[in-house]
Amino acid sequence: MIFDVEKKDLKIGISACLIGQKVRFDSSNKPSRFCIDELSEHVEYEAFCPEVAIGLPVPRPTIRQIKKDDMIHVARPDGSGDVTEALQAYGKKVASMTQHLSGYIFCAKSPTCGMERVKIYSPEGNSLKSDGIGSFAKEIMEANPLLPCEENGRLNDMHIRENFVARVYAYKHWQQVYASGLTKHKLTTFHSHYKYTVMSHNLVAYRKLGQLLANDELSLHEKSSQYISGLMEALKIPATRKNHVNTLTHIQGYFTEHLNALQRKELCEKIDGYRLGLLPLIAPLTLLNHYLLHYPKDYLKGQSYLAPYPDSLRLRYAY
After folding, report:
1. Which domain holds residue 18?
2. Which of 129, 156, 183 is the last residue of a domain?
3. For burial by CB atoms within 10 Å, which of 95, 143, 195, 235 has the most?
4. 318 falls in which pLDDT band (50, 70, 90)?
5. For position 317, what pLDDT does the model report?
6. Which of 305, 259, 269 is nearest to 285 (CA)?
7. How does pLDDT run across 140-167, given as a tens digit for each residue?
């Protein structure tokens, strides 16, 4: 990792049921093994259950999103017990108190915590489009547009999991830099750390962010605001195998003059093996990090791409 962060300083919001709290409508929970057994070794959670927080009991009647007069209400299936305003108010309250969070994990499909694809019903009980957003989750995401957010179900996909964790650590790094007092030099240095990371996600964003930092007509505040928005949007775009290969090849160039013919051949084979899907990404990265130890390059040492989060999470072994 390119910056120091202790577990106690890296805080993630999470739906309480995902870490084992029995707060669901039927007194059950919905534990996420990744969140409980793996990610918890590196972060501290701040757990929220908006339904319990606004006074609903456990157990309780189910609630759902109901579309009435072009408005989304959260209530019992028969329309009674409308808690829409209470949930929105609580969401705004939590959003205003959690600017220190570096990520959030929501419970999928929940009428309060679902990030996307939440079922919406008609007042008569007919199922409409599943394109709703949980009333609580919506408030959190709208108030914190930079905040990396994901759902428990999507985190079962290793690519999405890796992408989320990488965004969490990048955002935490930004929070640290910003809190220390942002300067033009710090902004430029921060960008240099993430150049190859952005390259692996989106080449257009890679060029635009570089052009943004070269624009001297903007104030530091304007530039930094546009920069971090652009960076976090770019990192949402999944890195492709093609872009990874392009990035690996760029980094390979730093070692060309140091490696003998056999070493160059081995590195090329590892990159090509990854390109063909025969090797995981960790294979060429391990070799590049090995050469970085033997032939130190200050610029590469600061690249988040080579070590975006703790190795013990093993997130680059699966693709």
Report:
1. 7-156
2. 156
3. 235
4. confident
5. 86
6. 305
7. 999 999 999 999 999 999 999 999 999 9
**Locus of tokens 């007092």:** 181
Q: For the chain, how long is the longest CA-to-CA vector?
A: 75
Can you tell me the mean pLDDT for 44-64?
Answer: 97
Of 274, 273, 253, the closest CA to residue 264 belongs to: 253
CA Rg value for the chain: 22
The count of domains in the chain is 2
Residue 110 and residue 16 in one domain:
yes
Distances (CA, A) of 80 to 121, 122, 299, 308: 14, 14, 61, 48
Q: Answer yes or no: do 144 and 249 share one domain.
A: no
Report DSSP letters for the chain, one per residue: --S---GGG-EEEEEGGGGT---STTS-----HIIIIIGGGT-EEEEE-HHHHTT--SS----EEEEETTEEEEE-TTS-S--HHHHHHHHHHHHHH-TT-S-EEEPTT-TTT-SS-B-EE-TTS-B--S-B--HHHHHHHHH-TTS-EEETTGGGSHHHHHHHHHHHHHHHHHHHHHHTT--HHHHHHHHHHHHHHHHHH-HHHHHHHHHHHH-TTS-HHHHHHHHHHHHHHHHHSPPPHHHHHHHHHHHHGGGTTTS-HHHHHHHHHHHHHHHTTSS-THHHHHHHHHHHHHS--HHHHT-GGG-SS-GGG-TTS--
b vs e for 262-295, b when ≥16 Cβ sit within 10 Å of the residue's Cβ? eeeeebeebbeebbeeeeebbbbbebbeebbeee
Record the pTM: 0.96
Residue 234, domain member (yes or no):
no
What's the pLDDT at 305?
97
> The tokens of 106 are what?
């929501």
167-192 burial, b at 16+ Cβ within 10 Å, e below that, comes to bbbbbbbbbebeeeebeeeebeebbe
From 156, 175, 200, the end of a domain falls on 156
Is the same domain home to 14 and 150?
A: yes
